[in-house]
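Open question from group meeting: does this chain pack into something compact, or does most of it stay loose? Before anyone orders reagents, we agreed to write out a predicted structure and look at it together. Recording both the input and the output here so the notebook holds the full record.
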Amino acid sequence: MSQKRVVITGMGCLTPIGNSVSEFKDGLISGKNGVAPISLFDAEHLSVKISAEVKNLDMETHIDRRELNRMDRFCAFGVIAADEAIKNSGISKDNSDPERIGVIIGSGIGGIESLTNNHLRLLKNPRRVSPLFIPMLISDIAPGHVSIKHGFKGPNYSVVSACATGTHAIGDAFRMIKYGDADAIVAGGTEASVVPIAVAGFANMKALTKNSDPNTASKPFDKNRNGFVLGEGAGIIVLEELEHALKRDADILAEIVGYGATGDAYHLTTPAPNGEGAGRAMKLALEDAKINPDELDYINAHGTSTPFNDKNESIAIRDVFGEHADKLFVSSTKSMTGHLLGAAGGIEAIASILSIKEGFLPPTIHLETPDPECDLNYIPNQMIKKEINYAMSNTFGFGGHNGVLLFKRFDV
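Structure tokens returned:
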């Protein structure tokens, strides 16, 4: 069976450093810090008081108030980012077969804000729980809203795999188009979990940084890192079969050529020793793309700023790429955006595509004290202008979920 080529024709995002792809790009280039004191609620009673929030967003300029009242914040983020991606792509039910356009958008946690708000109502009076509570809670409602709004009737579902969610959603979409199950799919991740119970939960399991200074809190690969910063937002891309995109004269941003997914089978929250599962996922993506390890130029690392992840990911990269690891450029954009959990794979795929299309490599900011156990070129503090052909995006999640995407400069 012949395999079809899959390209990217649209992107959309909401991030802590920009509320559109253009703003996100500018933030990556300038090394903008998206971490700040929590503003969504009073965090005085919590041990962690910083996060990476979406800022200066008036959602009513994007979504009608009546519709907003039917959505959790995570869902609204997904709809807004998908709208941007679809608009930029130019794909619609009028110029394509709507039954061949799918939507696969995931969320690691889903409508946790709606859950906590309605639980408070329940404690006062069960009759006050919203009749819209369940559809606002469930993760799969985001792709549902997008498909209804745009009339897309192809494959429609949600992926839930913690921090690997966005990557797995895009990987699923890639495979479905590659094997002819759809002409185009809107895919990615969305998350809005900066709520008291989530902050407390992550803090109590010692996953969040103890550093209270927003200007230095997220510092992947630095010797003094001690946890991640919780972020929110959405990253959505439009994947499309090459001939379908060419027929409608779409602007092709990049080609997706590889996907690897593995499980650690090791521990609920700690990565496998030496990043064994992560390394296998990278190898699978390279094999899927049919390229040699020494052809890769850049890795957008998972790079969470946690002691175990950064060390094990670095070891895995060395294991997979051998001597070429010293020539690779590696960076963690989480140093700027914090960790968007289920949306991380979406915005980091966009960062990887932008690096190819725009000819720059985003930095790892706040990297001041190199860790001897993290000994790669992490592009410290300032971006690099460089043309590249291949970029890899790594995401690894609680539960031992590993997902890796590989993008290529488009060439007919």
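Observations to bring back to the group:
The chain has 13 helices and 14 strands.
The CA atoms of residues 173 and 185 lie 6 Å apart.
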